[in-house]
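Minutes, project check-in
Item: structure for the 365-residue chain
Input as provided by the requester:
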Amino acid sequence: METNAYYFSRLSPIGGIETFLYQLAKKYSKKDITFYYKSADINQLMRLSKYVECKHYDKGVKIVCDKFFCNFNLDPIINGDVTANEKILVVHGNYDWLGAEHAPRHPEIDRVIAVSKDSAKAYTRITGIPCETCYNPFEPDEPNKVLTLMSATRLDPHTENIKGTARIEKLLNALDKYCAEHGTDYMWLMFSTTKCISHPKLLWMEPRLNLSGFQIGVDYGVQLSDNVEGFNYTTHEFLNYGTPMVLTPCDTYKECGITDEMAIFLDFDCSNIDEVVEKMFNSHLRFSYKSPKDRWNELLATPKKPKKVKKLEMVRVIATDESEKRHVKIAELNRIVKKGETFETTPERAEQLRGDNPYKVRFIE
């Protein structure tokens, strides 16, 4: 005879009830809990099995216990497979919103508890059955730091090689290996024009003009170009915000005073890649950096009187496709514009698009 048996029909890869079962198992493993399930995500099942016994249930499997718990699925009770001193229904939601017809009930249920007073009141209001409250257990896990990386680089067919596509792929593989060995994780935001690498941890982002909010919020900026950079703005932006970098040792970085206190350097041939990854997870670089002073104040001629900058005029147009077969990528939007879509552009560009064949636009007043 088991002490506590808890049945939940399906364990999904992610969900609130799945978290509840994990927290219950972790906090009260000494209470001798056995979980019964009908189908389960393997990762959820492995996580639970560290603390409690997990058994598969199907019709005809007999569950004999002191206390039996279940959520909305009552199959073991309906099938007559449960023998228990007390059968307890656990309500995890507000059935005023979930729908009164879905509120579970059965004459063999001895006791109903809900995870909040709000849910308890709703259940009693709908069913007329008394329902008490018991909040969900929660003990936060020890935080496992997720390394956050970011790049903003033009990886298009003309530049992806000199901008370090191959090095990016090697670094992704090295990061995967390290995380698998150390039980940690990472994600990499890539702001670029072309999605030339497919990897689950590489998140492709649409280019935008101001990236400062992202640059101050990540652990490292990453720029892995060949030794071609003259003055890499992305690098200077990150460093001026106090965000360290992972860089290849381009000559210009030394010239600008970028040191090991501000960046982790990956050799051009990636021969030190394991050392770099180790440092990325375990270094805590703190520094203050200012870019070299420019001389454009001297180079630019001074106007005799101040000139007011004229604001760029924009017009709103609607896209039409007379051929009804294809759409044209609008350069200033950096994406396909579909038939019937409205967007803003300059009057000159609108006139040009209006004459393009088969792509045309119509002005909107």
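Outcome recorded: The CA atoms of residues 177 and 237 lie 30 Å apart.
No further action items on this chain.
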